[in-house]
Amino acid sequence: MRKIKITIRVIVFLLIGSVLHYTLPQHDVVRVVNTYQERQDLNDWTRIFWASPDDQSATLVNRDVQFIQTVKRRTMLLGFVQRDATEVMVYRNEDTGWGWPFYFKFDTANLQTEADDLVSTAQEPQWAVMTHYGWRNEYFSAFPNAVAIRPIDNPNVTIIPWFNIFFFIALIAAILFIRAMWMQFRERSVDPLLDAAEHQYDEMQAEVSERKGKISRWLGTWRTKDKR
Known about the structure:
2 domains, elongated, transmembrane
């Protein structure tokens, strides 16, 4: 039973961690190579990796999506340590609207224009910080969604994810607050009910044992008569 509880907790922790990793903003140091627009099919389960910014997108089988092609600096230790190596990264550029995740992004055209303005070559690179959420997966045709982009002078910058830090602080504080409320509620309401139920159960057991004892003694008197 203990192993089952541990397994369930690990699965829940992994699910929540995956959702947070997909949803929370991430920052990449990139060099924009090109931007383009392409029609994407949305008729299978991979639709979950695409935004639904309006009511029509929920019923459309395909639609045009804007993309930003970049060369990204590789990082280590959750993005805090940058490496000299680079890799190719492609971002989609879609509005999130009022839906999940709640970035309230409505400036797709502006972001695409900013990305076009930052296109550069390897000989004369113009580096930028790309803020995005989501994952890149070639097999499922999943692309992270670009949220914002800003130019930087030096690619060797340290980006501190302040929003994520404050989010986890608030999340931990909320968990501790809810736990304290639950412990107080349990102490005042649940534990007395459990104690009362346990006491009633003990009394019931004692009453049953007493009745069994009376029946045994009564049967014992009949056995004595039979011997006579």
